[in-house]
Amino acid sequence: MPVDPGLIKDVMVKDFHCFNDRGFYCNEKHDPLSAHLLNLNGDKWKKMRSKLTSAFTPLKVKSMFDSVLACTTQLLTSLEEYASSKKVFDADEVMVRFTTDVISSCGFGFKSNCELKKYGDEIMRPPIIKIMLLVLAEMNQNLAKRLGITRTTSNARSFFLNVISRTIEHREKVGATRKDFLQILLDLKNEGQSLTTREITAQALLFFVAGFETSASTLTFCLYELAKHPAIQKRLREEIKNVLNTHSHVSYEAVAEMTYLNQVIEEALRKYPPAGVVARRCLDDYQVPESNLIIKRGTKTLLLPKKHIGVNSPIQILGPAPKGR
Ligand code: HEM
User: What are the required cofactors (predicted)?
Assistant: First the structure.
């Protein structure tokens, strides 16, 4: 487990060609929705990644800002109600509702609903039996594929496949377009990129599951730290007021000027990283620079920045290659 920032940089950048797999279990046959960017490996990941890179340009993200803003109305109403009732409330639950709204709107162009949250939760918090099967699947991926072990439940799969294919059909039928992630994928398909409805649904699903919980936990921890540090809260409020005084309304540009806000969010991410480790699988025997250590081909490697755990040991390498790879 490399924890040294220099070595992490080597693995992620300079020597990326030796580590461009995460090595996660993916079962395209029984679970086509597991074949998204996070789980795809090797050439399949590279091809999908290069197709999707254009989906994340700052301009495209900016074009979704109004949709994000629209979701804050409901959030503000809820927060005002909680503030006036002075009752304790579950901030994480409120933030999850907000980020689910944002991702459903920016991702698929529809309002979030109970079913979306239900199946999102089902994927993010699977029952214990599913977790055990998935641990097994990570340990012996070939056997898991033969047994047909899936990451998503059949209900969640049919729900997402149905909802996305109906939305695609509707847009194609009436010629409607929207400024959302699904539209970016449809445009890529219409421009001649080979993307099936299943592939589109898998990437859209990743966008949803990768986005709502990570962002909600970041916001929740920001609120927690701000509640504990009133002086920081006061300084942040002043910055927001000052910036908004020079803009007619809350806009992408105005938020980009809020440097202290950015620092507050980055500090929350540092203290409470929603994804504390980054996984890589070594594709070739790798000589760790300036040491006699070799990371063997096939070894699953977890990258963990030292600052997150305060570990001083330079490098520890855990675990042999998983069976069946
Ligand atoms: C605080 C919020 C977030 C955190 C901490 C976070 C963290 C991460 C991490 C650690 C990875 C793996 C990186 C790697 O292996 O190199 C990742 C991948 C990914 N995340 Fe996020 N994420 C966040 C929000 C989002 C949002 C909002 C979206 C989309 C709406 C998103 C979409 C993705 C995608 C598509 C990938 C796969 C990228 C690839 O394979 O090239 N994430 N994220």
Answer: heme
